[in-house]
Design brief:
Radius of gyration: 21 Å
Number of helices: 15
Structural class: alpha/beta
Distance between the termini: 26 Å
Bound molecules: pyridoxal-5'-phosphate
Number of strands: 18
Strand content: 15-25%
Helix content: 25-40%
């Protein structure tokens, strides 16, 4: 497979854009090759600028749940553009969008549209702080909530220390308000609450973690967080930017039957446009400006074109609930196929899945938290990734990202994927112990 044009494009991009990309994971740094530059995509397939074709398991990191360039999604888009793409004044589509989100997700009685997942979590936290009059928040190591200052934090050394910045440019004065606990470990949260009594505004987490590989929370863990928040008055925030409208129309909350006080969305709700949203109980959301005193705004928030695309996708998903069964079946077949191949090569790796999100952890250890994920062999992942790419299967260029399956992924796609995987794992096996 020839990547000459992509390599040239990457050289050029690096002169004008830091690292040549507008979001770090796109640089393929952890697999140490040049990224592929995309020409176009249709359904489950994607073509790079060298003309190579791939089965795409990145799917724009989640939004393209119906596959690329779905004919229904294209319909009407030109008319929407023709009517004008931004006014800075309210439109009916924003009301429709709020209605569909709140009806799908009853814990969100009201919702505010923003332009990214990052903005959604950042704003939700501000509101939770305003509402509770408290400053500290709890997050979990390995959960990703976008790149706002207070969330670029890892656990400090020692059990009860404050979070420390994971990036230069983030002041410790900010991250000291972020307390970092261990995912799926309720004791770590209880200890943190005891040490910070009446100071914690919110717990924020991905109820199905999708940014340290795929790690569904244990149900009892979510239950215990819910109880802890009820008891202490802290606001429970589910970051459903990945899981929302993917694991089911009602997100992870509906799957688990455990409901947060606030929720953040992104990815699927924008159908590929830059969209996010946060919502919650009316009592909390009424703190948002201009109704309430917590300021939050956006020139392009609720953008008419973005709302048009988002509404179309959500409307389609609402009317075709069988899609979620199909995604579950495809996800299950994928998982079983991977497991069979791993068994054949006697590789004791973990395959973890939540609906159409799937992940192969290159470790023998079941993965329940960030520390477990860190036991993965990323060198062997690199070999696997490159072999898959060479055979026309595009998986995320990182051990710690999910495979995204869309409605467009066919039986035939899966079969081709398994053929490629068989060879890729043979290469991994051969490299093991070298
Ligand atoms: C992608 C993601 C975000 C950030 O969303 P952006 O649109 O990239 O800012 C936040 N939280 C989770 C769980 C995500 O997966």
């Amino acid at each position: 497979m020839n990547h000459q044009k992509s390599e040239q494009a990457y050289q050029q991009a690096q002169q004008y854009i830091p690292g040549g990309v507008n979001s770090p994971v796109r640089a393929f740094q952890s697999v140490e090759i040049s990224p592929v530059f995309v020409q176009r995509a249709k359904g489950s397939h994607l073509w790079d600028i060298d003309g190579n074709e791939y089965i795409d398991y990145i799917c724009s990191w989640g939004p393209m749940i119906l596959g690329h360039s779905h004919p229904m999604m294209q319909q009407g888009a030109l008319e929407a553009i023709d009517a004008g793409i931004s006014f800075g004044l309210p439109t009916l589509r924003e009301v429709e969008m709020a209605k569909i989100i709140t009806s799908a997700y009853p814990a969100a009685e009201m919702v505010r549209m923003v332009n990214s997942g990052t903005e959604a979590t950042m704003s939700a936290i501000r509101v939770a702080r305003g509402y509770t009059g408290r400053d500290k928040i709890v997050k979990f190591e390995g959960c990703y909530h976008g790149h706002s200052d207070g969330l670029l934090v890892k656990a400090g050394s020692g059990a009860l220390t404050y979070g420390v910045p994971t990036s230069p440019g983030v002041p410790e004065d900010i991250t000291r308000h972020t307390l970092v606990c261990r995912y799926n470990d309720i004791e770590s949260v209880k200890e943190t609450f005891s040490a910070n009594e009446n100071q914690i505004a919110a717990i924020i987490l991905e109820p199905i973690a999708g940014n340290m590989g795929v790690i569904p929370a244990k149900k009892e863990f979510l239950q215990q967080l819910r109880e802890l928040c009820n008891k202490t008055g802290a606001v429970l925030i589910f970051d459903e930017v990945i899981s929302g409208f993917r694991v089911g129309f009602g997100g992870a909350a509906q799957q688990y039957g455990i409901f947060p006080d606030m929720v953040c969305f992104g990815k699927i709700i924008g159908a590929g446009m830059p969209v996010g949203a946060y919502g919650g109980k009316k009592e909390i959301m009424e703190w948002v400006s201009p109704k309430g005193p917590v300021y939050q705004a956006g020139t392009l928030s609720g953008n008419p074109l973005a709302m048009f695309m988002g509404l179309k996708q959500l409307g389609y998903l609402e009317q075709h609930s069988e899609i979620y069964q199909q995604l579950e079946q495809t996800g299950q077949k994928l998982q079983e196929g991977i497991q069979t191949i791993l068994n054949r090569h006697q590789l004791p790796y973990q395959v973890q899945r939540a609906g159409s999100l799937c992940c192969i952890f290159f470790t023998e250890k079941p993965v329940l938290c960030y520390d477990d994920a860190m036991t993965c062999d990323t060198e062997l992942f690199k070999i696997y990734f490159r072999e898959m790419l060479a055979q026309g299967v595009l998986v995320a260029p990182s051990q710690f990202e999910a495979m995204f399956v869309s409605v467009a992924h066919t039986e035939r796609d899966l079969e081709q994927t398994f053929v490629a995987m068989d060879k890729a794992f043979a290469a991994v096996k051969a490299a093991q112990g070298n």
